[in-house]
Amino acid sequence: MNPRDGARSLARGRVAVGAALMLFPRLAGRGWLGEAVDTPGGQVAIRALGVRDLIMGAIVLHTVDHEDVGPRWVATCAIADAVDLLATVAVRNELPRFTGGVLSPAIAGGSAVAGLAFAGGLKRQAPSA
After folding, report:
1. pTM of the model
2. Each residue's pLDDT tens digit, 47-97
3. Is 104 left (phi over 0), alpha (psi -120 to 50) or beta?
4. Where are the domains of the chain?
5. How far apart, in Å, do the first and last CA atoms of the chain sit?
């Protein structure tokens, strides 16, 4: 997969996940955070994360063809995924064992690695000044 198509795929997934987290915080967030999504505070946090992801994905879709800002936005999303990974791993023993402690970190880590690779690929494809 070329870096531009890969970045678009990650961004579309981010938009979809963000929308699901915003619209259905209990359903979409339960596998990651468990019963914490049943609290009002948990729902606020999940919805805030959802809007973050939706907006970041939309920005990547809008900028991916811009040689200067596209790679930076893809890398920014990868960094956010890396932070999600680290934050989840830090409390993994308090989360649902498989979905929160294993699956969610794997998804965040995979997205971070792929995003950084796609950002680097986009940067290499940009013509030199």
Report:
1. 0.91
2. 999 999 999 999 999 999 999 999 999 999 999 999 999 999 999 999 999
3. alpha
4. 3-124
5. 26
